Amino acid sequence: MGVKLNSELVKKEKLIEGIYKYSVKAKEIAETAKAGQFLEIKVSDTNDTFLRRPISIYNIEKEAGIVEFIFQVKGKGTEILATREVGEKIDIMGPLGFGCFNIKEYKNVAIIGGGIGTYPLYELAKELKGKAKTTMYMGFRNKDLVTLEKEFEEVSDRLVLTTDDGSYKEKGYAINILKEDCKETKPDMIFACGPLPMLKAVREFAIEENIPCQISLEERMGCGIGACLGCAVKVISGTEPRYGHVCKEGPVFDAKNVEI
Q1: Phi–psi pair at 216, nearest 5 degrees
Q2: Global pTM?
């Protein structure tokens, strides 16, 4: 279930307009956190922003006791979070998520992310570095939204970066290049995180090509422990589908075991 900490913000970085990377001192969380897990962050006590905000873990520094997360300002809650300054304490609960990325022995891995959905894949790529040949596919809408290119390049054997409008690097969608690459060599596993349309396309492709695939779902999770029932998703287990919860059974699922 994780622990609840008042964690000190030790570093604040504005990646681009509206997107921030926070580094917090959270030894108890860093010690047990795994790639694919998330945090529940309290931003205020007011009624309209009372619920915690779920934010995926970007990077774990176990020895230093540091956990990093990245968020985009989208509403009042994240607007408040963006005003925090170095030295302030942030109320964090984590690590949460029983479904994290299942890392085994692979020879060839494809990791695909879209937009802010690329950030939860960094810790995964870092853990796979030197253990498997890793190709990272990153997709953004345009050049102005491209972030952390150098960081992902450092933890990948090959980085493929696309923009929808062609304003930077390859034009089009990252999944299209993944499909082309699979004609030559199919990966042992596809890991994916990003917007729902991208995840649907990756899931369908992986199932059609019989490639193992794990997808990380992003849902609004008010509690993070399965109590509020706000993140229901159709899970395929046994003979009939049932509804599970992203926070409790995920956020990472085997692509064959979840309907999106």
Answers
A1: -105, 120
A2: 0.92
